[in-house]
Specification:
The chain is an alpha/beta fold. The chain contains 9 helices and 11 strands.
Length: 293
């Protein structure tokens, strides 16, 4: 496990399934009170086509609920398509030995899946959301809508959950602000709160620092460290600094394939990152965060 090679198939680490390895690590860290982790994602021999082009090839990936994982790779490597395959926005090509299970199921209604998996896109909100108050934008997460339409029935519990999610993101002060008047960093906090209203066991973050200035990036990363105490983090990024100290596993992608999957300390090296991004990389680590130049 953790070897970069041309075939695109990551070697498997000894010691059982990924879920079993995570349980072993939790026990070694002294966590014996938490309930056993459940399987979240299982992919075997997954190919995904967009139009006539196959953009994901032979993907093998297993993630346990509550696990913290970073998917790292250059732009155009297939990360966005992998997200769509995980969130059931697109489905794999059916073939021999192919398997794609989310919580043990092949197919999901997207609104039902959002109760278990919170998804935060790299893009800022669509045209309707900027004319929505912060609290209403968060509540709209219950309906997977761009805003709160008049026909939607909002309960007191939904409002309570929305306030709770804003508080988790240290964004309660944004409840009465128009989303369109917020900074990029403030908007990202509201959108993550929107994904948290269901109290999902897993949170998928696509390029979380996209469009944020340095101060907003730092604030968001520290807030997400708190979220990581109660939910698994699946982070898709090409920025090393996005990888929180709580994330111990890294999956590397290149040219539509997983080329390495292993412990963060084994994969975040200058040699491996230089191979992955095709450019000479110099690394430094500070307070659990890695930076490159």
């Amino acid at each position: 496990m953790g070897t970069l090679h041309k075939s695109g198939l990551a070697e498997q680490a000894p010691g059982g399934t990924q879920q079993e390895r995570v349980e072993t690590r939790r026990k070694a860290d002294g966590d014996t009170a938490s309930p056993p982790l459940q399987p979240f994602l299982r992919m075997r021999n997954v190919d995904v086509a967009r139009g006539e082009k196959i953009v994901l090839r032979r993907v093998n990936l297993e993630i346990a609920e509550g696990e913290h994982v970073a998917i790292l790779g250059p732009n155009g490597c297939g990360k966005s398509t992998l997200i769509k395959a995980i969130t059931s926005e697109c489905y794999p090509i059916v073939g021999p030995g192919m398997e794609r299970l989310i919580y043990g199921r092949e197919r999901w209604d997207l609104m039902e899946l959002r109760k278990h998996l919170g998804v935060v896109s790299a893009e800022l909100p669509g045209e309707r959301t900027p004319r929505t108050l912060g609290i209403d934008a968060v509540v709209s997460g219950f309906f997977s809508s761009s805003t709160l339409w008049p026909n939607l029935e909002v309960t007191a519990q939904m409002r309570e959950r929305a306030e709770e999610a804003l508080a988790r993101m240290q964004a309660s002060h944004l409840r009465g602000r128009w989303v369109g008047e917020m900074s990029a960093g403030e908007t990202r906090r509201v959108m993550i709160a929107r994904a948290l209203v269901h109290r999902p066991a897993m949170l998928l973050l696509d390029e979380p620092s996209n469009a944020l200035d340095l101060a907003a990036q730092r604030e968001l990363r520290e807030i997400l460290r708190g979220v990581a105490r109660t939910a698994g983090i699946l982070m898709v990024t090409h920025q090393l600094a996005d990888i929180l100290p709580e994330i111990h596993r890294v999956v590397m992608m290149r040219d539509g394939e997983i080329v390495a999957d292993g412990a963060k300390g084994e994969l975040l090296t200058e040699r491996r990152l230089s191979e992955l991004f095709g450019v000479e990389v110099t690394l430094t680590e500070r307070n659990g965060y890695w930076h490159s130049w």
